[in-house]
Design a protein that fits this description.
The chain is of the alpha+beta class. It has a domain of 103 residues. 28% of the residues lie in helices and 19% in strands. A five-stranded antiparallel beta sheet has the order 1-2-3-4-5, with helices on one face. The longest helix is centred in the first third of the chain and has 20 residues. It is elongated, with a radius of gyration of 27 Å. About 3% of the residues have low confidence.
């Protein structure tokens, strides 16, 4: 006994257009440690092009996350950086990110800033900590204690020092 769906698809199929079957996506159901090892070995056997593409897009995503915090770091350190380039990263870049960012310096003596960003829920703002004045040899630490708090964006008036007027002659109104 055949179903109507299979009959109608066979009826529509002509010699010029063969019957089309849905394409199944490749999924792996892992039930044992042995299957997990086999799946990992399969993912490690990527072609050079696949590995290169994966690294390129991972680095681009890490750069995008770091770019979110550039102005806050520059504001906190009261510097404008010549460069802002992620050289190393760890984490999934969705909930947690450890980033090593090259900020300035010449090729012989580059300076780095390390960023630690965490998001507790999807859609929430990042909580960011940073470690300034690092060198290329400094390892990318994964302990939050190694970082300082990076304040949220400041308001416009935070940088202005508006001392109250002490005398009428010293005050000027705009």
């Amino acid at each position: 006994m055949t179903s109507r769906a299979s009959m109608s698809s066979k009826a529509l199929a002509t010699p010029a257009t063969p019957e089309k079957k849905p394409i199944r996506s490749l999924t792996e159901y892992i039930k044992s440690p042995q299957q997990k090892r086999q799946a990992q070995m399969g993912s490690n056997n990527q072609t050079r092009q696949q590995a290169s593409a994966k690294n390129f897009f991972g680095r681009a995503e890490a750069q995008g996350v770091a770019d979110l915090f550039r102005s806050r770091v520059e504001q906190e350190l009261e510097e404008d950086f010549d460069r802002w380039l992620v050289t190393e990263y760890v984490g999934d870049l969705v909930r947690k990110a450890f980033l090593k960012v090259r900020v300035c310096g010449n090729d012989h003596d580059p300076e780095f800033v390390h960023l630690f960003a965490i998001r507790y829920r999807k859609g929430e703002a990042w909580v960011v900590r940073f470690a300034p004045y690092k060198t290329e040899q400094d390892p990318l630490g994964q302990a939050p204690e190694d970082y300082e708090d990076l304040p949220e964006r400041r308001m416009c008036g935070d940088r202005l020092e508006m001392n109250p007027c002490t005398s009428v002659n010293g005050c000027a109104a705009m």
